Amino acid sequence: MASMMLSDCASSTATTAARILPFTGRPRTQLGLIKFHKFLDRVNFRLSIPKLPNFTVQSIQACTADTTGITSNETSVKVIDGKAVAKKIREEITAEVSQMRDAIGVVPGLAVILVGDRKDSATYVRNKKKACEDVGIASYEVRLPEESTEQEVLKFISDFNDDPLVHGILVQLPLPSHMNEQNILNAVSIEKDVDGFHPLNIGRLAMRGRDPMFVPCTPKGCIELLHRYGIGIKGKRAVVIGRSNIVGMPAALLLQREDATVSIVHSRTINPEEITRQADIIISAVGQPNMVRGSWIKPGAVIIDVGINPVEDATSPRGYRLVGDVCYEEACKVASAITPVPGGVGPMTIAMLLSNTLTSAKRAHNFG
Amino acid sequence: MASMMLSDCASSTATTAARILPFTGRPRTQLGLIKFHKFLDRVNFRLSIPKLPNFTVQSIQACTADTTGITSNETSVKVIDGKAVAKKIREEITAEVSQMRDAIGVVPGLAVILVGDRKDSATYVRNKKKACEDVGIASYEVRLPEESTEQEVLKFISDFNDDPLVHGILVQLPLPSHMNEQNILNAVSIEKDVDGFHPLNIGRLAMRGRDPMFVPCTPKGCIELLHRYGIGIKGKRAVVIGRSNIVGMPAALLLQREDATVSIVHSRTINPEEITRQADIIISAVGQPNMVRGSWIKPGAVIIDVGINPVEDATSPRGYRLVGDVCYEEACKVASAITPVPGGVGPMTIAMLLSNTLTSAKRAHNFG
Lengths: 368, 368
What we know:
Two copies of one chain form a homodimer. By secondary structure, chain A is an alpha/beta fold. Chain A has a domain at 105-204 and 350-358: Leucine Dehydrogenase, chain A, domain 1 (Rossmann fold). Chain A contains eleven helices and eleven strands. Chain A has helices spanning 36-39, 82-104, 119-135, 150-162, 181-187, 199-206, 217-228, 248-257, 272-276, 328-332, 346-364, and strands at residues 78-79, 109-115, 138-144, 168-171, 237-241, 261-265, 281-284, 302-305, 309-312, 320-323, 337-338. In chain A, the strands form three sheets. Chain A has a six-stranded parallel beta sheet. In chain A, strand 9 and strand 10 form a beta hairpin. In chain A, helix 2 runs parallel beside helix 11. The relative contact order of chain A is 0.21. At the A-B interface, helix 6, helix 8 and strand 6 of A face helix 6, helix 8 and strand 6 of B.
């Protein structure tokens, strides 16, 4: 099943536009190389789609490895292996969970609330449950029918808030359209908001001298990849492409906390290529297949590509393949390091969710 | 009295390093043109000074209007008259307050808590009280002795939180060193946090689709000046110099909300001059006299100078004068518009505090 290949961003919301369009079995539009301005603001738009089972495959010109305007990098590019890093992190979490259980008899617990029957949401929830099992975190799942009331969902959240066995609560988005998503998310206790999307968390992330309870999973995964590959951030020029609440904005705040000089490029930016070309570190999270070309990249830059965009591919048995926001072939000629798609940032998101759940349990029990 | 000339930033904290050093009657150091890196992180540092009565006058080379490296602006510079704009805003507030009183019998109220006997803090509180009186806002002042306990302060905050006559609460900073400032500020009800410094407010300011209850006064004043002078923000390149919680960071978030492409320059930025020179709009809030030279400015850029730095001036009867972060004489040759110091951003801070208090009262009484 196609959607098995995709991982959603943090609890719920897809990172990129392309991941979140409905799957119609045929390309929605012949987009060609899609215009920057039109697409960059779509990042969050899954939230407004009520009930769509899967995603759309985009039709797009292949990234042709055009070298016009590219100053070639002299050394070979390092591929940042998110899959391997995520595996390592899951092993570390497994060890810590086991140590905690042995020492104080506490098992970290993650509760997931799923409302309705979206297939992609069901897949995301199943993946999270499986990931929890693998590291020894207990998972608690509540499935409610599409026609449930807001009050019913709030009641479950309230129960999980009070339940000492639960250290993290996720509400799988999108919710049915008759529910007020903001009300529901605000009801999750700040101590259990392992997604880190609560405004209080974001405020603390933005402020010097304050610390968030949790850092949102996908941006946390991006920074973790830089750390694990020994890539310095302090004093570096960083450009974040996309300003969504779930990836772009918190990624920019995290880079700033680590003393990078950060610029945010978005749908209203004039000449995004020029600004991006100044960056030592690029984090792209817009859901625009192959938007960032080789000519956008400074030689030796490090690229973290958050986009996971299915595009048409007649040579694939599935009829599509996944590409990032960055034209990988061109970027490899210029960058010093790059995350592939798939296998880059994607696997990090669930690893960070497990990490946040463990952190929450340790904090609740004053352990470690 | 020297400190009468200064206005503090929002409730409490001075915007700039130079404003907040102790007044010793002689220059602390012969700084010359002070190094960027050393000073840029001092912005918040008044918070850590326990009891210093006034401020230090810095010794600094005058900004010499050196034209080396400056591409001169062909048209004449527009001086952004913050004093006049603030006066206009106070008149508008006066009219609204009067209208509200006549219509529903409600007078907006601002409570200020002052602990200890710092002369500068007393002056700031007096200025705020006077500004309230002038527009018809009721002010409630609590003065507590230096040796008061945190619990006593918290009790007053709690009473004001519950008092329907009070729509805004300010705790004048810095607090005595035996008090936990974060605990005290967090106790102010989010509905009455007219400073807008609560992390929940900052989080909402950062997030798309969310709105803060209040916008911090000084950054709000900067954006208001741009609006009142008809200076477009959308699509512009903006550079904010300084990343303090009270000015730089929220100013960057505000510019981003208005669709500027924002970069934040700070103490760890390498080559801040190069980045600043790309900006159509510069907001500087670092407390470093004359740091931004003409050569840092793109011809035609708009400059909002938040710094208010007293520097030695033997020709002045007081022995000092106030300058901004930007070398005004040089900037006037390059920029299209600039705020002077004094008379630029300074008067806007209290005007925005009054505006936030009125907004709070209107919201509490569902008026207008």
